[in-house]
What we know:
- By secondary structure, this protein is mainly α.
- The protein has one domain (3-191).
- It has helices at 3-14, 30-37, 47-61, 71-89, 107-113, 123-127, 129-137, 142-147, 153-167, 177-191, and strands spanning 44-46, 68-69, 97-98, 120-121, 151-152, 174-176.
- The strands form three sheets. Strands 1-6 form a two-stranded antiparallel sheet.
- Helix 1 (3-14) packs across helix 3 and helix 3 (47-61) runs antiparallel to helix 9 (153-167).
- The termini are far apart.
Amino acid sequence: MTKRTWFIAALCAFGGTSVASADHHHHQAAPEIFQEMDENKDGVVTLDEVEATATEHFNEADTNKDGKVSPEERKAMHEKWVREHFEEHDANKNGKLERSEVEGMPDEAFARLDKNKDGALTMDEKMAMGPEHCKMHGKKGEGEAERNREMTKDKMVAKAHEKFTKIDKNKDGKVTEQEFTTFRKAKMAKHHECPTED
């Protein structure tokens, strides 16, 4: 996993996905994400480590350095990350993600994204993953509203802090790999519950 990839995966867990849709990283393995977040390799992730990650992620997304991430910056960063993730996982370099190249993705999620039903995901199909997720899992209109909202660094760090508090079950100011994995499993189970059409 590249450095940038784990930033995104970490922020999926710790509440920073408002800057850019990171659905293409929901399927990374929890232990791998945890180990990358644990910068000093002491076996726990601290709030300082999470806030540093959120800040670095924000600074990368804020390309014009005005202290905010605009909807346009969010979209550009999403597209950049999708391309990088796609190229990283396209092991046979055929310009498609075969089913075996996205092993962590449930069959129903893969089938929903595979619009032309050829058993592989194209770059365009992968790029549509963010909006598809918002449609399937957000409240009505919530995904679009979130994508059209500016994000400040303070708000992003606050979201990361809030999520850290939820994951830190024993409230000792540290997140263990077990706490992280338990939280992520519950989140992934909920994430893949597809709502029925009205």
